[in-house]
Specification:
By secondary structure, the chain is mainly beta. It contains no helices and 11 strands. The protein has strands at 3-7, 10-13, 18-25, 33-39, 46-52, 57-59, 67-72, 77-82, 91-98, 102-104, 108-113. The strands form 2 sheets. Strands 2, 4, 5, 6, 9, 10 and 11 form a 7-stranded mixed sheet that branches. Strands 1-3-8-7 form a 4-stranded antiparallel sheet, with no helix packed on it.
């Protein structure tokens, strides 16, 4: 059984930084990519960043240059380093695993205050 656990969310002031972590465990054969999505109140869940099994990365335009996704391959753990945070980054951040099936974590709240 696949488990996906996020951590690292919290409250931060505008311009501040946070690092999110996502640890995946279980039978992860066929894993192609891991990534982050976010969902703000009254909004749909949106793509933030991903990293493939080969280490290629992709970012949503509004976070390019501010967020960095990285991965520890041996541990199936990914990170999202978020800097220069803005109020509009406030959302629940979800970790996503893309393999034979798609898996989601339970989410971690990020709140950016002015």
């Amino acid at each position: 059984q696949i488990q996906v656990v996020e951590s690292g969310g919290g409250l931060v002031q505008e311009g501040g930084s946070l690092r999110l972590s996502c640890a995946a465990s279980g039978s992860l054969g066929g894993l192609r990519a891991m990534g982050w999505y976010r969902q703000a109140p009254a909004n749909e869940r949106e793509f933030v960043a991903l990293i493939t099994a080969d280490g290629d990365t992709d970012y949503e335009d509004s976070v390019k240059g501010r967020f960095t996704i990285s991965r520890e391959n041996d541990k199936n753990t990914i990170y999202l380093q978020m800097t220069s945070l803005k109020r509009e980054d406030t959302a629940v951040y979800y970790c996503n695993l893309l393999g034979d099936l798609t898996y989601w974590g339970q989410g971690t709240q990020v709140t950016v205050s002015s």
